[in-house]
Design a protein that fits this description.
Keywords: Membrane, Transmembrane, Transmembrane helix. It comes from Pseudopithomyces chartarum. This is DUF7729 domain-containing protein. It holds the Pfam family DUF7729. By secondary structure, the protein is mostly helical. Helix 9 packs antiparallel against helix 14 and helix 10 packs antiparallel against helix 12. It is elongated and about 165 Å long.
Length: 381
């Protein structure tokens, strides 16, 4: 207020011009002492201070946001913990009446068996007594005679030397003491009759498996070599005489047939006895036992996918790679058929390699190395 009045007095005092002409003189600014005092802020005097304040404000806002975000989950959990309703436990009301309907009937029967999945061997159990055999003999005792091979009349299509060999073979200790199941399966009429009884076929298998397999294998292999001699059945074998071929295959297949016929299930019963006397499968479970004798399994055959079948095929697989064994011609087709409905993991489709057999790469590398050595010496000689 004071500065304003002093300024107005100065203007009235200096209104006249210094010049003599009638002209309006320009007003000169009042002296500095009469100007109003202006105050300048520290921020205008120091611009760097403004930048420092802005930076501090920015950092403070960022730190505040982070702290709030870190606290939100804890706050939310506390709120939820406070707001979560306490479950109410209902107590039984003694005044409420119980079930007054008809009496409940509980099913105490055993649950049904789960479905069998292909690719997994089912447990092999013995057939119930009603299904084990068509006809059994409850009075069976130790007087039962073990079946023998070629017990029916032989045909007349033999050479004289071959007929003599057959008579000597059937009375040899190898046949009478070993009771070779491989030689009886296709040629014994008494074995066919014994297969109608679970007791009789079990007694037959017990006699077969009680023999010394090592000595019996040596004896049957020796008889097979004698059969192919010129003074025995060589001509008959070359002419594909059915009984001679069956005899030869039964002799050389003694070992795989011995191992397969002596297989037992978890209950201690012979797998072949269960297979041949089980009317449920109608004897189809016994079909794979003919593979070592050179008999192909029919395409429509579907033996039960159980542990017995899996063990049989595992035994046959170890002999299928031997070209001298008849099963080398029948195993592959049977394994492919079984794998289609039992699963690829159930059976080994390819035969197991022979022990000590050279690999294909080694067999082809040897002649190639010899050829390279010959070329080297030819060039540098």
């Amino acid at each position: 207020m004071f500065h304003h009045e002093a300024t107005m007095a100065w203007l009235q005092e200096h209104r006249d011009c210094d010049c003599d002409c009638d002209c309006k003189c320009l007003l000169r600014p009042p002296p500095r002492s009469l100007r109003p005092a202006t105050t300048s802020s520290p921020v205008r005097r120091h611009p760097g201070l403004l930048l420092l304040l802005l930076s501090l404000l920015s950092w403070a806002s960022l730190l505040g946001t982070t702290s709030a975000a870190s606290l939100l989950p804890h706050v939310g959990r506390q709120d939820r913990a406070r707001s979560a309703p306490t479950p109410q436990i209902l107590e039984a009301d003694p005044l409420v009446p119980g079930w007054d309907g008809p009496e409940l009937v509980l099913d105490t029967r055993e649950p049904p068996m789960p479905p069998a999945y292909y690719g997994h061997a089912t447990e092999t159990t013995s057939a119930p007594p009603a299904k084990r055999s068509i006809k059994t003999d409850p009075k069976a005792n130790g007087d039962f005679e073990i079946p023998v091979p070629f017990d029916s009349a032989l045909n007349n299509n033999f050479t004289t030397s071959c007929a003599q060999f057959f008579r000597a073979m059937l009375t040899s200790e190898t046949v009478t003491d070993c009771h070779p199941f491989s030689l009886m399966l296709q040629t014994s009429n008494s074995l066919f009759k014994a297969s109608r009884s679970f007791v009789r076929i079990t007694q037959t298998l017990e006699a077969t498996c009680a023999a010394n397999s090592t000595q019996c294998k040596s004896g049957t292999n020796d008889l097979a070599r004698q059969l192919l001699a010129d003074d025995a059945c060589k001509i008959d074998y070359d002419n594909n005489n059915p009984q001679v071929v069956q005899a030869y295959n039964g002799l050389i297949a003694y070992e795989p047939m011995y191992l397969a016929s002596c297989l037992k299930d978890d209950d201690g019963d012979f797998c072949y006895a269960n297979a041949v006397t089980n009317t449920t499968s109608e004897g189809i479970d016994a079909v794979p036992f003919y593979l070592p004798l050179g008999v192909n399994m029919p395409g429509g055959s579907r033996p039960t996918c159980n542990s017995c079948l899996q063990d049989e095929m595992a035994i046959f697989s170890s002999f299928a790679a031997n070209s001298t064994q008849p099963i080398s011609k029948t195993y592959s087709g049977a394994a492919s058929t079984i794998s289609m409905y039992c699963g690829t993991a159930f059976v080994n489709v390819t035969a197991a390699p022979l022990k000590g057999a050279a690999s294909a790469s080694t067999a082809t590398f040897t002649p190639m190395l010899s050829l390279l050595i010959m070329v080297f010496f030819y060039i540098f000689q």
